[in-house]
Write a structure and sequence with these properties.
mainly alpha, 87 residues
Length: 87
């Protein structure tokens, strides 16, 4: 929030809005701590995102993920595409 034009600090409205934001954040955190199911769902989403990121890093940056071999020697030759390229 912007300060008053006289430069004496935040207006009462700005202070009230900031306080309401702090209350909302505190309530959210308390509910998050209390609800084990919600925390578990978030953990599953986080693990899924990390696994997808790890796979993408292995595929596009040449780092092995341990499951797939992305080297060119391990890939089959693209023989089926030769007639398309020659046309």
């Amino acid at each position: 929030m912007k300060t008053n034009r006289d430069g004496k600090g935040s207006s009462e409205l700005a202070k009230a809005i900031a306080e309401a934001g702090r209350v909302a954040k505190t309530m959210y955190l308390l509910n998050y701590i209390d609800d084990a199911g919600y925390r578990n769902r978030n953990l599953i989403k986080l693990n899924h995102s990390k696994q997808r990121h790890q796979l993408a890093r292995g595929a596009f940056h040449g780092r092995s993920t341990g499951r797939y071999d992305f080297t060119l020697t391990a890939q089959p030759k693209a023989g089926g595409l030769r007639p398309l390229r020659q046309a």
